[in-house]
Write a structure and sequence with these properties.
globular; 6-stranded mixed beta sheet; 6 helices
């Protein structure tokens, strides 16, 4: 179900959606690894409320049981993080044909790379593909943004973190705290 809005042949309305800032085109991260990387961009509707309205999803209970929930949360998190990211931050995603994947890669202007995995549940689990991707790109920091409120370590180098706290982490980069 992920990113099916514009899959297949290029839509005639896609350039219009780009022009009026309705969609975000997230480009793939190009690491110097000897693996087959996914090269097509991911496309997200920037305002998840539009998708919910078009699908007739009126409340959270209906949304949480709908197949679009995970994709909607992922797009919402990406938009919020990029809104507060420091100027000149480059954003992308990482995926290999073997399934190594990270939802959002942030290349900060200070040269640091952050890996952000996005999970819609309250008890996130890391999959093998995330660990493989971390080995490939070796980011300076890695996070799992999830729907909960607590921050806790998931591995030695990866923290589970709420969206609001992750936004604060990004906002504090300019102040030299991260």
């Amino acid at each position: 179900m992920k990113n099916t809005l514009f899959r297949g042949r290029k839509s005639r309305i896609q350039p219009l959606f780009d022009a009026v800032v309705l969609i975000r085109r997230l480009q793939p991260f190009h690491a110097n690894v000897k693996k087959r990387l996914v090269k097509s961009p991911r496309i997200y509707v920037r305002d998840s409320g539009i998708i919910h309205a078009l699908l007739g999803i009126a409340d959270f209970n209906r949304l949480s049981g709908h197949p679009v929930y995970g994709m909607s949360w992922e797009g919402f998190v990406i938009e919020n993080l990029l809104m507060v990211a420091p100027a000149r931050t480059l954003s992308s995603f990482y995926r290999t044909s073997a399934g190594a994947e990270i939802d959002l890669i942030l290349e900060l202007s200070n040269g640091r790379v952050w890996a952000v995995e996005i999970k819609s549940g309250l008890t996130p689990r890391l999959e093998k593909g995330f660990h493989n991707a971390l080995e490939d790109i070796q980011p300076n920091r890695s996070f799992v943004v999830y729907a909960g409120k607590d921050r806790y370590p998931m591995t030695e180098c990866t923290d589970a973190i709420s969206l609001s706290e992750m936004m604060r982490e990004l906002e504090n980069i300019d102040s030299g705290e991260s």
